[in-house]
Amino acid sequence: MIDQQTALRGSAAVSPMGPRTGRFLVLSVVFVCAACGLVYELELVAMATYLIGDSVTQASVVLSVMVFAMGIGSLLAKRLRGRAVVCFGLLEAVLALTGGASALVLYASFAWLGESRHVLVAFSLAIGVLIGAEIPLLMTLIQRVDRQDAGGAVADLFAADYVGALVGGLAFPFLLLPTMGQLTGALVTGAVNAAAGGALVLWAFRGDLDPRSRRLLLVVDTVVVAALASGTFLVDDFERSARRAVYGEDVRVAVRTEVQEVVLTGAGRGPLGLYLDGRLRVSSDDGHRFHEALVHPAMAGRHGRVLVLGGGDGLAAREVLRYPDVESVVVVERDAQLTRLARRDPALSALNGHAYDDPRLTAVARDAFGWLRAGDRRFDVVISDLPAPGISDSTKLYSAEFYGLVAGSLAPGGRLVVHAGPPGTGAGDFWTVEASVRAGGLVTRPYRVGDRPAGGPGGPDGPARPEYGGGEPPGRGFVLAARRGEAGRLRLGPRIPEPMSLDERGLLEAGRAAERSRPGTVPPSTLVHPRY
């Protein structure tokens, strides 16, 4: 211990500044590195959720792998303390390049290879190891510039680290994502990380560096910052190339809203496709079949006042507005930019029959859960045309509590219909939705409509899955529900002016097809125990 303290006192002499100044600079860099490190973590979680879905699983994978890797990094850093200055400088350069480029590489693997899970784990592991190695090296550096006891140094380091993590955690959703997006935000964060680490080493600890080490660090930091800065200028071209790889050559509109990425393809050169966060939601090839099956069974009773939850594309509203006796339609879609696109884009507005120009329709840009909870209106029909549970943050909109709110918004004799995914063997989500609707106090009538012919785009929330297990194709599943004592048989709404792909007989068979695949008891999904 005496030899170590003597070495630390002797090494402090090489610093060109006083102990307090040196301590302040080291803690400032700890603050910056902690902020950057948390941005890398959040960026991986956000990108993985966007590309793969299921935010809970992706957050669990990223955070658990990174924390484990941080422990490995701390152990490995014990061997580097003898050359702490050089090793810290190189470590920050590698971390900046790895973290800054992680979003680009993750997106590229998804676009061109079709798989990003292994890349996600690899980056989580690499970034975790590098972050874990920072603190032991920074502990050595702060004791070189200030003869502080180990306990005080640890307290200062972790205080700066935690405050930096707070700033990074707040900066990611409120500054970086809205102003720069995921790719540019990660690149800029990496450049800041490299500049901060390089400046500390090359200036505050320049007396510890021999000329060769100084030149090496200067070249490495310059190359890393230049590479990351160049990436920010090329990111738009990269995004366009990646989109073409994912969606094909006929991308017409691509916009990142505050809620999701919205991409429109085709129209004129091919069938129109609407993708939300990379998943096909609407195809002009067969979108009418899906929305006919969703809407018209719910319109069999009174339907003067209709509520559409989700459905910002306007296609469910199109089917509702085919009924001349509909008095009002309220579309609650939290993505205002999606509804604006559905109103103004010529191809999409033509596909939805210019539903947003109908004076009977009112669009509300709110989260459906909060809107229902705060409102007291009653509706004859409620149509849930929301993203499937498990692939977005819409899981709470498939909970028993949510369906309890919907049940409270139904007028006497009112009906709810939910798009719930395929009800075939192994498709637990469908029957979990059905159980959750029942737990919300409603009586259910599930039904299944067969898949479109193979060979074209898939249905909502993803491509068709011909490889699905079981003897029958999974089809598209729906749950029709009403209050107890008010649920009748499956039937279509009256007075449809044009012919449809689904008739009364086909609907009854759709109900029998769903019941044939009903499993045993399935527990509902709740807010505190989600089961998707």
TrEMBL record:
Binding residues annotated for spermidine, in chain numbering = 291, 313
Residues bound to S-methyl-5'-thioadenosine are 260, 333, 367-368
Record's Gene Ontology CC terms? Answer: plasma membrane
Q: How does it assemble?
A: Homodimer or homotetramer.
Family stated for the protein in its record: Belongs to the spermidine/spermine synthase family.
Looking up InterPro entries in the UniProt record yields: MFS_trans_sf (IPR036259), PABS (IPR030374), PABS_CS (IPR030373), SAM-dependent_MTases_sf (IPR029063), Spermi_synthase (IPR001045)
Q: Where is it mostly found?
A: membrane
Q: Where in the cell is it found?
A: Cell membrane
Highest taxon above the source species: Bacteria
Protein's pathway: Amine and polyamine biosynthesis; spermidine biosynthesis; spermidine from putrescine: step 1/1
Where do transmembrane segments lie in this chain?
A: 24-52, 58-77, 84-113, 119-142, 154-177, 183-204, 216-235
Q: Under what name is this protein listed? A: Polyamine aminopropyltransferase
